[in-house]
Design a protein that fits this description.
The structure is a homodimer of 237-residue chains. By secondary structure, the first copy, chain A, is of the alpha/beta class. Helix content of chain A is 36%, strand content 20%. Chain A has a domain at 2-33 and 102-228: ComB-like (putative 2-phosphosulfolactate phosphatase, Alpha-Beta Complex). The longest helix of chain A is centred in the last third of the chain and has 16 residues, at 151-166. The first copy, chain A, is globular. Chain A binds chain B through residues 8-9, 11-12, 14-16, 145-151, 154, 173-176, 178-179, 182-183, 186, 197-200, 202, and chain B through 8-9, 11-12, 14-16, 145-151, 154, 173-176, 178-179, 182-183, 186, 197-200, 202.
């Protein structure tokens, strides 16, 4: 039996012990949904960077850069953070540099974990299947919003951890897991209305960027499992 | 209209802005339930201290000291952390020093807030009534467990914030509020079984200290509103 835990914010990651575990990074609106879309459409590798300065340095070196803060594309960047931008024509075979508001510090997260994978509703079944096969403890890290708890990430954490526990080979002693499973149970059949409770939905709407929400809550458009390898995000395998 | 927010862990308090707000500190199992019990039974004032060292210094000065770590009474202390210890006979008119595992750093919390009050299920209606009367923004701070999210604190946060919003004079844009309200809606009529999901229930049971749980989830045994004043916890008024 393996354990599954959920951490509700990158600010809380330090009170968890990722050693020997697979960490599933989750940022439904929108980073991990964007990463899964890029990878589904053939991106070669993604270089995750934390600061605007790093993103700018890569731009100066000639890289294609995706960068947003507070939902909006940064001036110098090639792309903002909508998954719809990253079609096969645009990203196939390319290397992209990626920096977002709640962008997880990949170095910090990856340092002690056994492996870091990227989860979204878009690759839900692929992630669950992969985690079940590994026979390792799992820690789902919700990116949150500027350190705060986010409903959308908790819902995905609940969907994933619930599936793992239902399989009978995972158990939990983690309150965040039990709460997430309950929230997902309430939301899953009523997402059209439940989404109104999500603050990020309203932030994106204000910016005219909420057209992506239905897409980001779509289950299983892809079977890719993006994984952190030598500080790059690449397809598994 | 005033806002209500919920912060799920003392480790996340720094990403909230308590300025001008009433902060409701919540630690259902067991600190804020104990404090409400003490005050209901006539304690004069409580000196909250963060470290074991501080608690020991007070003991050396002759104060009555309540101190636990990981659920268990510390050797030098007069009392552990069970609310049943603090009868009228024991505490009436007394000053107590209080230090617990997840004991909130009262200085840090009180520094910028307009006021800090202590919430439990035991004084639920009194807290809600008081908050409605103040016409100020409210931030409910869940103590959590060693920085992690706790279901029991989220349930009380949901009960309080739900009542405030139902009254029509509070609103929220906070995902933690909406999630807490949903969790309380699931749990409230099934607490006897729901309590099994709570990690702290199992920690206390292991220590033989779970006899307090039913009591700590009892609504309205008292109408006291404990409040932080000059770094002491005293009854409101």
């Amino acid at each position: 039996m393996n354990t599954v835990e959920v951490c509700f914010s990158t600010e809380l990651f330090k009170v968890y012990d990722p050693k020997g575990k697979i960490v599933v990074v989750v940022d439904v609106l929108r980073a991990t949904s964007v990463i899964c879309t890029m990878m589904h459409n053939g991106v070669k590798e993604i270089i995750p960077v934390k600061t605007v300065e790093e993103a700018k340095e890569y731009k100066d070196k000639g890289y294609l850069v995706v960068a947003e803060r507070n939902g909006e594309k940064l001036d110098f960047a090639d792309f903002g953070n909508s998954p719809f931008l990253f079609t096969k024509e645009v990203v196939d075979g390319k290397t992209l540099v990626y920096s977002t508001t709640n962008g997880t510090n990949a170095i910090a997260v990856g340092k002690d974990a056994d492996q870091v994978v990227v989860g979204a509703f878009l690759n839900f079944s692929a992630i669950v299947k992969y985690l079940k096969e590994q026979k390792k403890d799992v820690l789902i890290l919700c990116s949150g919003w500027k350190g705060k708890f986010c409903i959308e990430d908790a819902l995905l954490a609940g969907a994933i951890s619930g599936s793992l526990i239902e399989s009978g080979v995972f158990y939990t002693k983690c309150d965040s897991v039990n709460a997430s499973i309950d929230l997902w149970a309430i939301a899953k059949d009523t997402m059209d209305t439940y989404v109104e409770k999500i603050a990020q939905k309203h932030r994106l709407k204000k910016l005219g960027l909420d057209d992506v929400i239905g897409y980001c809550f779509t289950i299983d458009i892809t079977s890719v499992v993006p994984v952190l390898k030598d500080l790059l995000i690449v397809p598994l395998g």
